[in-house]
Write a structure and sequence with these properties.
Elements (H helix, E strand, L loop, with lengths): L9 H24 E9 L2 E8 L3 H18 L5 H22 L6 H10 L8 H23 L5 H11 L28 H20 L4 H15 L6 H15 L11 H17 L3 H22 L2
Length: about 300
């Protein structure tokens, strides 16, 4: 009959109560053990999926959050001492990034070229310029990060222009107009007429990831990975992509991160990029970048915390 309420028996009330408790407990557990990560792809696009906290990448990102908080909590050193530490680590970054691309200058020689203007006997002019230009590009991305300037295609072109300064004036800061191939890779970059539209899409995806709250380290890895995949320049794509990655890391409170250039590390680096570009499996490369960020944070903490 309309208006007549059905009276539940005590046993039914208890069952409803227990179901409610169980449901609330499930939501609580889901919140603790599952977090959204944009690493799964559908048709090449990054999408939001819940990922188990016990996966290696998710666990590593959690470690990075803790290390970053620990670094920020350390009492600041005197500015002079801090600048010397940063200068030493940035010099190592210049050395390793150029080493990946085949530059034969040692770390000590790189420091002499950049800091003292010394000419190293037996080394090419290009190798000297690569060291000088990379150090200047680091200063540039630090200024951009400090000023909190948004990353755009223009930013990327400006970084590239510094990398190729006095090496290739005609191509510095300009998208390529010829097809290219990557030595030792099965992946073939897009044709020249596709570079501009793919770069526009690249920036849109980056902005979407930011808006969706993707972890900063994953965005940094994406910027590196995708720029290398598009390969928009004749030369200098690798160095530019690593600088772009570090620009975003610096803008989000992280430290300069160095990807090593020794044979073993370089092979792992290129293998992870190959998996991403030929199999659309980005996770190995994202993990590689996240692990490098962890080592960078630990280095700073060990030095500054002493």
């Amino acid at each position: 009959m309309e208006g007549k309420q059905k009276i539940r028996k005590p046993q039914q009330v208890v069952e409803v109560f227990l179901m409610d408790v169980f449901f609330r407990f499930f939501l609580h557990v889901k919140k603790i053990f599952f977090v959204p990560l944009k690493i799964k792809e559908i048709n090449g696009k990054i999408s939001t999926k819940y990922t188990d906290m016990n996966t290696p990448l998710t666990h590593l990102l959690h470690e990075l959050d803790l290390l970053k908080a620990k670094l920020q909590a350390i009492r600041p050193l005197p500015m002079e001492a801090l600048n010397k530490i940063k200068a030493a680590l940035e010099m190592e970054y210049t050395y390793e990034s150029n080493r990946i691309e085949g530059n034969t200058l040692t770390l000590q020689e790189t420091a002499l070229v950049v800091s003292e203007g010394v000419t190293i006997s037996g080394k090419s002019m290009r190798e000297h310029l690569e060291a000088i230009n990379h150090a200047q590009a680091i200063d540039f991305i630090k200024d951009i990060a400090t000023a909190d300037i948004e990353i755009t295609e223009r930013t990327i072109k400006e970084i590239h222009a510094i990398i190729l300064h006095s090496i290739n004036r005609e191509q510095a800061g300009k998208y390529r107009n010829v097809p290219v191939m990557i030595v030792g890779s099965k992946y073939v970059p897009p044709q020249p007429y596709l570079v501009a539209p793919q770069m526009e899409q690249f920036i849109r995806e980056y902005q979407s990831m930011k808006a969706n709250g993707t972890h900063s380290v994953l965005i940094a890895a994406f910027l590196h990975d995708e720029l290398v995949k598009i390969h928009p320049f004749i030369d200098g794509n690798g160095r530019t992509s690593r600088l772009l990655m570090n620009l975003y890391l610096l803008s989000n409170g992280y430290t300069i991160t160095t990807l090593k250039g020794d044979n073993e590390a370089k092979q792992a680096y290129y293998k992870a990029l190959e998996q991403s570009h030929t199999n659309n499996n980005r996770e190995p490369f994202y993990f590689l970048v996240a692990d490098a960020v962890k080592k960078s944070l630990e280095t700073y903490i060990n030095i500054i915390g002493q």
